[in-house]
Amino acid sequence: MNKFFIAVLFLSLQLYAQTVIVKDAKTEKPLELVSVYSGDKNRALITDSRGRVDISSFRNSEELVFRLLGYEILKVSYNELSKQNYSVLLKEQPIAIGNVVVSSNRWVEDRSEIAQTIELITPKDVEFMTPQTIADMLSMTGNVFVQKSQLGGGSPMIRGFATHRVLIVVDNVRMNTAIFRSGNIQNVISLDANSLSNAQVIFGPGSVIFGSDAIGGVMEFNTLVPQYSYSAEPLFKSNFMTRYSSANNERTGNLNFSIGLQNWGFLSAVTYSKFDDLKMGSVGPAEYLRNEYQERIDGKDSVLINSDPNVQKSSGYSQINLMQKIRFKPNDEWEFNYGFHYSTTSDVPRYDRLIEYRNNKLRSAEWYYGPQKWLMNTISATNFSNNSFYDLSKIIFAHQWFEESRHDRNFNNNNKNNRVDEVKALSLNVDLLKELTGASQINYGAEVILNTVGSTGEGENIATGITKPISTRYPDGSVWNSYSLYANYKNKFSEKWILQTALRYTFIHTASEYDTTFFPFPFTTSKLNTGALTGSAGLVWHPEKDLQLNLSLSTGFRAPNIDDIGKVFDSSPGSVVVPNANLKPEYISSIEVGLIKLFSDNFKFELSAYYSYLNDALVRRDFQLNGMDSIFYDGTTSRVQAIQNAAYASIWGIQSGLEFKFLNHFGVAAKFSYQNGKEEDDSGAEVPLRHAPPYYGTFRFSYENSGFNLMLYTDYNGEVSYKDLAPTEREKPAIYAKDDDGNPYSPGWFTINLKGGYQITDYLQLNAGIENILDKGYRTYSSGIVAPGRNIIGSIRVKM
C-alpha cells in the first residue's frame, strides 16, 4: 500500500512538473545558467548543468524569455513550447547591446536600460585568463587599475579613487568596514575567483543604492549558487582545477561540488594557493633590483647578497578559501539561502617597507602583515508573492569578522611591534521591488550596519621574550553604525527612453574612548552623529535599435570611519597620524555621458566621459597635538598629522572600448582608460591626485573554434613623470625609478602575452599561456612590488 502511495505521489509530481531542455542550436550541447523568466527578470529560473529547468510556475504564460550571455534572446509562449516538445535551441550572438543582465540597483536589469558604465566579468573570462587572485582578475578587465604594495595584495583604483573610496560588495553584503583606510588595502584578495558566478564593476558614485564609500565605484561579486534538480534524480556536480605559474612557483588547487534536490541545493568549495618569492623581468630599471636582503642568522640581523637580484626576496605567501552554500525553496513563494565564507592568508611580507633604506642601510629587519582573516555568514529570504507593498522582497542578514595585524622591527633592534585589529560587523538589508505600471517600478529598502572595533598592541623583545603594552592602532571598543533608507524609481516611457532617479538618506554614529597612557590626547572620548543625503538621475536614449546614449548625474558620500577619526599610525618615516574627532562626510558630485553603438552584428564601440568633484575631502594634513607639531612615536621623533576635511579634488576622464568579430572565428577587442585628477594641498595649490593612475588599457586578438581558444594581447600603462607624481608619492623613492635628474618617476610599459585553451572533452579543459613574453621589468604605478617577469602558466579543469 505504501509503495502504491509513493508511486502515485511520484507520478503526480512528474505530471505537474514540466522540464525544458535548452541547447546550443549549432552543437546541440546543453546550456547551463540560462535565465528563464516571464515578465520579471528577478523571478528568473536557471538551467542546471544538463540544460534543464522546470517551468511549471510559468504555466500558460503568454511569453517566456530565454536568455544567456553570448546568445540571442528567445521569446516564446508556453503553448508554443509544448508544440516543440519542451526543447529550446539558442543561437549564438557574440555581440549585442541588450543581452547583458546586471544588478546596479540590487535587482537585475538589462544593461540597455542603465545609464552608468558597467564592466561584467563571467566565469568563462576567469577560466580562460586564469588569474592568481581577484585583484589580478580585476586588472585583466582593462578597465580597473590595481596597485600592489606586496605580492599578497591588490588595491583597485577606479576613476581616480581607491581604498575606502571604492566599495566591495559580496552577495549583496558590503565588505567595507570601519577600519578601511586611505592607504592601500588588500581585502579584495580574500575573495576566490574560482568561486564566482559573476562579478561586475559599476563606475562612478553608487552611494544612493550602496551607501557610504561608493564614491569612485562599486565592485560587486556574486558567488556560486547551488542548483536544484529538475527530476526525482539528485543532481551531482563537481569541478576540480589546478594551476601553476612559473614567476612565483604558484601551486593552486580548487575543488567545488554540489548536490541538487528538487527543493534543496548544497554547494561546497575550497581553494588553496601557495606562492614563492616573485621573480621580476630582466629588462627594466636598475632601481627595481633586489640586490640585497635582510635575514636573522644566529640571533643577529644580517644583510645578504641576493644571488639573483630579479627574485624579490621575502614576498611569498599562501592562502586558503572555504565556502559553503545551502539553498531551500519550500514553495513557489519563498526561497531561503545560507552562505558561509572563510579566508585566511599566511603572514604576508610587506615588500615596499622591506626595501626602504635609511642612511644607506636597510631600515627594517621585519615588516609583515599577520594572517588576513575574513569570515562571513549570510542568511537571506526572498518572497515572490504580490501585495500592495511589493511584488518581490528580500531580507539579508549578515555577520562578518575581520582580523588583520602588523608586525615591524627596525634593523639591529630587538624590539618588535605587534598590533592586532579586528572588526565584528552585523548588517541587515531589506529590499523591496514593486511594479507601479507596466512601464514603471520602484525598488526601495533599508539598511542597518553595526561595526565594533577591537585593537591591541604589544611590544616584544625578541632576544629576551619580554613583552609590554604599546599604543594600539585604534581606540579599542570603538563603534561605527550606519542607518539608511533609499528609494529608486524607474520609468520606461517608451522603447527609446528610460529614466531612473534615486534618493538615499544615511545617519552615521561613531563613538570611541581613548587611552592616554602613551599619548597626551586632549580628549578621552569622541562621538560623531551626522547624516548624508544623496541622489542620482540617469537617462537612457535609444534613437535607433543599435545605438544607446546615456546621461548620468549622481552624488555620493563617504562618512568618516574609525580609521579617519581615531587612528594612530606611522604614515611614513618621520610622520605619525593622530586622532581627530571633528570630522564630517565628504561628498562627490559627478556627471557622465556615454554611448554604445552596434555596427551590424559583429562590431561594437563604447565611449564614456565623466567629470567628478569631491568636496570636504578627508585628507591627511599637518596637525598639532596639545600645541606640539611633533611627538615621539615608536622610537622616532615624528611630525604630527591628522585626517581633516581640508581639501577638494576634481577628476575627469574617458573610457572607451571596441569589440569586432570577423571571419566567424576571429576577434579583436580593445579597452582604453584615461584620467586626470587634481587635489588641493596644504597651501591651497592644486597638485596631482594620488589615486589617479596614468592612462592604461589592453588590445587583444583572438581566435575561437570548436573548443579551441587562442589570444594574443598586449597590456600597457603610461608614464608618470616626477612633476605629475602626487607629493605623497614623491616621498616614496624606494618604489620608483629615477629620471635623468635623479628624481623618482613611474616609467611607462607594455607587455606581450599569449594564452590558449582547449576543451578536450565535455569534462576536461586545458589552459596555458606565456605572460610578459619580452620579460619586461616594470612596476604598475604606485606599486611596491615589481610585476612578474616572463611567466609560464598552465591549468587543468575537470568538470563532472
Q: SSE layout and pairings?
A:
Elements: H1 2-16, E1 19-24, E2 35-37, E3 45-46, E4 52-54, E5 64-67, E6 74-76, H2 78-83, E7 87-90, E8 101-102, E9 109-110, E10 118-121, H3 123-129, H4 134-139, E11 145-147, E12 155-158, E13 161-162, E14 166-170, E15 173-174, E16 196-203, H5 207-210, E17 217-223, E18 235-245, E19 250-260, E20 264-275, E21 278-279, E22 292-297, E23 300-305, E24 311-312, E25 317-331, E26 334-345, E27 348-349, H6 351-354, E28 357-358, E29 361-362, E30 364-369, E31 373-383, E32 392-410, E33 415-435, E34 440-461, E35 467-469, E36 479-492, E37 497-513, E38 525-544, E39 547-558, H7 562-566, E40 569-572, E41 575-577, E42 586-599, E43 603-622, E44 630-633, E45 636-662, E46 666-680, E47 686-688, E48 696-705, E49 708-717, H8 727-730, E50 737-738, E51 744-745, E52 749-759, E53 764-771, E54 791-799
Parallel strand pairs: 1-7, 14-17, 41-45
Antiparallel strand pairs: 1-4, 2-3, 2-5, 5-6, 8-9, 10-16, 11-12, 12-13, 14-15, 16-17, 18-19, 18-54, 19-20, 20-25, 21-24, 22-23, 25-26, 26-31, 27-30, 28-29, 30-32, 31-32, 32-33, 33-34, 34-35, 34-36, 36-37, 37-38, 38-39, 39-42, 40-41, 42-43, 43-45, 44-45, 45-46, 46-47, 46-48, 48-49, 49-52, 50-51, ...
